[in-house]
Every structure is written in structure tokens, then in C-alpha cells.
Design a protein that fits this description.
- The protein is α+β, with helices and mostly antiparallel strands.
- The protein contains 6 helices and 10 strands; from the N terminus they run H-H-H-E-E-E-E-H-E-E-E-E-E-H-H-E.
- Strands 2, 3, 4, 5, 8 and 9 form a 6-stranded mixed β-sheet that branches. A 4-stranded mixed β-sheet has the order 6-7-1-10, with no helix packed on it.
- A hairpin with a 4-residue loop joins strand 3 and strand 4.
- One of its GO terms (biological process) is transcription elongation by RNA polymerase II.
- InterPro entries: RNA_pol_II-assoc_Paf1.
- Keywords: Nucleus.
- Belongs to the PAF1 family.
């Protein structure tokens, strides 16, 4: 017994766009509009067809308008009279009536061909393109067109002042910004640009986070929650998972590993956070991470200029002992990746697939320490930019995407 199942496919999104319709060349059917049949015999009736049908033209080197410069002797004589080429603006020659339409403004005309044919009783001349055609159009199109037209008219009247981009002006603006942020800064004068009821309650200086600046951070987004637990069930294993790069003959993906129990994940995190950075614990027990599944990368953003790791520090922690001032410490994110579950293919030939990872902490090698110190010098060494300029003097491109920024961040609250 076989059954057939039919499903109706609907559009997921309505396509909305402005589609202005031209005026009809003749009265619509089933509508009694008084018109003069003689207008069909006028040459202007075919102007719309002639405008839409470009004709191939083969012209000579002078584009069909030969110019004989020998008629003007002033071009060849040293002190010739050039009044014929440059007439007096106060005494211009009389303009021929056949050429009067050439002086009209093209932007103010409604069509390519002037139409003076008979009109209907409503005063609309058939054959001339109209700016507004309300018939056979939805109301939403008309409203959107009106909004777009009003926006364009508003932008035309905006006068842009010239901007001084000289070196002296740039130095003046930079010095002024320091004065506004340090000398004339006041929380009472801060106003939210869009919410009148929101006021600033505190201010933090934006500083690079020296403790984690040498590390590289990537942001991973999963299409669904990883692991085997529902969304409403907490899973302490997720914040210590392992993503291992994998490669086959035709594909690259990530292998996802988790601890087998929650106790193992909690014990691993307590060991890691109970020590100083880069300190290796003594007599550490290995932590086992088991393979869960593979994830493929749907989208990879190599440059993330507007997302950071931000830590607000009030300066009241007894552990710092005054080594860290109050501020908002940030670290930039290197990459963003969107992951989704990879289908299992029994024919994939893995190069080195691991079912279990037994993890232990190890001290850093000399090469790793030198790489860390080089990355940390970007925010710890005041002479870093001068040394970087010396390195780029040989013709290398200076990449300032990772240069730390400074400024202020304000904490606001609604009243």
C-alpha cells in the first residue's frame, strides 16, 4: 500500500519593491473614457515606442557633425577678430524658434518627447509618462514611494560644510578631544542621544587588558546547543570543551570533545583557576575528554572590528594590591565562526581521529614565551610603535588593525 503526501509550498517572505507603472498608451478596457480617435494618427503617438527602441547608428569620426574650422579666420591669424566665435553676452544673436526647446532644463521635463495631443475629461494627456500612477498599484507601494521621495527632498537641502583635513587641524582636534575627556568631563552633562530618561551613573577609562592581551580569542556560534542535554538543563561541561581542527581529503571541520561527567569538568576548572596564569600544577591528574561529534564551519569572519571581550573593574579587589586601576579592560576577538552539525560519512578517511583526549598542563617552550612577549609588547612597551615603524621602513605595510585603543566608557541607567 502506497500513500502520496502533498504539501503546499508557500512563500517564506513577501517581495516588496517599488515598481512604478507607466501611463497606458490608450484607455483601459471596460472603462468608458471619452477620447478623440484622431490622436492615433498624430506622430506623437509613436514617441513612446521610438524612445524604447534604440536604433543602431554608424557615424563617421566627427559623429555626423563635420566642423570646418577654415571658416573662422581668427583661429589662424595672430590678431584676428573672434567676435563670431565669442559673441557679446549683452548683444546675443536672435535665437531661431526651432532651437528654443534646446534651452529647456532636461531634469524638469516629464518625458523624452513632448506630447501635445488631446486629453481626456480628467485633464490627463494620454501618451505622456506620469509621475504618479495610482491605478493597478497597491497602497503600500504608494506610501513607500512617498516616503522615499520626501527623504530624497530633505537630503537635497542639507548643506555640507567644508572639513579642514590639514595636519594642523587634525592636531588641534586631537588636543581638543583630550581636553573634553579629561578637563571638561562631567557626568551631569552627559545625555543619551535617543532616550531622554537615561542618565550616566559612572565612567570607566577604556584600557587594553594586559593580562590576556597575548592570548587569541575566537567566537564560536552553534546552530543548536552542543552536547546531548536539553536547553533548560544546565551543563557545566560546555565552558571547558575542546574544538580540535580536523581534515580529510576534501574537507576541513572541527571535532567537539566534552568530559564524560560534570564532576570531571568542575574539577578541571577548579584546578585551572586555582593557579596563576601559565603556572603548571604539580602531580596533576589527567582529564579525559571524549569525542561527541563533528561540526562544519558555515561562515568564518576573519576580521571582527566591533566586538571585544570587556571586563569592568572598580579597583576594589584586595588581590590586585593597587596594581590595576579602575577601568574597562578589553581584548579584541580575532575571528567569528558559525558551526552546524556535520553529517556522518562512513567513507571519510580521517588523517588522525582521536576518540579520547587525555589533557595535562605543560610549561611553555622558549619559542612560545618569545611569541607571547612579542604580542604583549604591543600594550606593555611604550616604544613598540617606534620599533614597528623601523621594521616597516623596508617597505612592509603597517597593519594597525590590532593597535590598542584608549577612551572612556559610560555606564547608564534608566530613571
Amino acid at each position: 500500500m502506497s500513500t502520496k503526501r502533498s504539501a503546499k509550498v508557500d512563500l517564506l517572505a513577501r517581495v516588496r519593491y517599488s515598481n512604478p507603472l507607466p501611463a497606458p498608451p490608450c484607455p483601459p478596457k471596460l472603462l468608458n473614457i471619452p477620447t478623440n480617435p484622431m490622436r492615433y494618427a498624430r506622430p506623437e503617438f509613436l514617441n513612446a515606442l521610438a524612445n524604447d527602441m534604440p536604433l543602431p547608428m554608424i557615424v563617421d569620426a566627427e559623429c555626423g557633425m563635420p566642423l570646418d574650422l577654415g571658416k573662422w579666420e581668427c583661429l589662424w591669424e595672430e590678431n584676428g577678430d573672434d567676435s563670431t566665435l565669442n559673441p557679446d553676452p549683452n548683444d546675443l544673436p536672435k535665437l531661431d524658434q526651432k532651437d528654443a526647446f534646446l534651452l529647456a532644463d532636461p531634469s524638469s521635463s516629464t518625458g523624452a518627447y513632448p506630447v501635445n495631443g488631446p486629453s481626456s475629461s480628467s485633464g490627463v494627456t494620454f501618451g505622456a509618462p506620469l509621475a504618479h500612477v495610482p491605478w493597478l498599484r497597491k497602497t503600500e507601494y504608494i506610501s513607500r514611494e512617498g516616503m522615499q521621495r520626501s527623504t530624497m527632498q530633505e537630503t537635497k537641502h542639507v548643506a555640507t560644510a567644508p572639513i579642514d583635513v590639514s595636519r594642523e587641524a587634525q592636531l588641534r582636534d586631537i588636543e581638543t578631544s583630550f581636553a573634553e575627556c579629561n578637563e571638561n568631563f562631567s557626568l551631569e552633562r552627559l545625555e543619551h542621544p535617543n532616550k531622554p530618561g537615561v542618565t550616566a551613573v559612572d565612567s570607566y577609562a577604556i584600557l587594553p587588558d594586559v593580562d590576556i592581551w597575548a592570548n587569541q580569542y575566537d567566537l564560536f556560534r552553534f546552530s543548536e546547543r552542543p552536547g546531548d542535554r536539553p536547553v533548560d538543563v544546565p551543563d557545566p561541561r560546555l565552558d571547558c570543551a575542546i574544538l580540535r581542527p580536523m581534515k580529510t581529503e576534501h574537507d576541513s571541520f572541527l571535532a567537539f570533545y566534552l568530559t564524560e561527567t560534570d564532576e570531571a569538568a568542575i574539577r578541571f576548572k577548579e584546578t585551572r583557576f586555582g593557579l596563576a596564569p601559565y603556572e603548571v600544577p604539580e602531580n596533576e591528574e589527567e582529564t579525559e575528554f571524549h569525542f561527541v561529534r563533528d561540526y562544519e564551519t558555515v561562515k568564518v569572519e576573519q576580521e571582527v572590528p566591533n566586538e571585544f571581550l570587556l571586563v569592568l573593574y572598580d579597583g576594589d579587589s584586595p588581590e590586585d594590591d593597587g596594581k590595576r586601576e579602575k577601568g574597562a579592560y578589553y581584548k579584541n576577538i580575532e575571528r567569528k565562526m558559525l558551526l552546524k552539525k556535520k553529517r556522518v560519512n562512513i567513507y571519510d578517511q580521517y588523517e588522525d581521529k582521536w576518540e579520547v583526549i587525555r589533557l595535562l598542563h605543560a610549561p611553555m617552550s622558549k619559542e612560545e614565551e618569545e611569541e607571547r612577549e612579542e604580542a604583549l609588547a604591543e600594550v606593555a612597551d611604550p616604544m613598540y610603535m617606534f620599533m614597528r615603524a623601523d621594521q616597516d621602513a623596508d617597505g612592509e605595510v603597517d597593519d594597525t588593525a590590532g593597535v590598542p585603543m584608549h577612551g572612556n566608557i559610560d555606564i547608564v541607567s534608566e530613571t
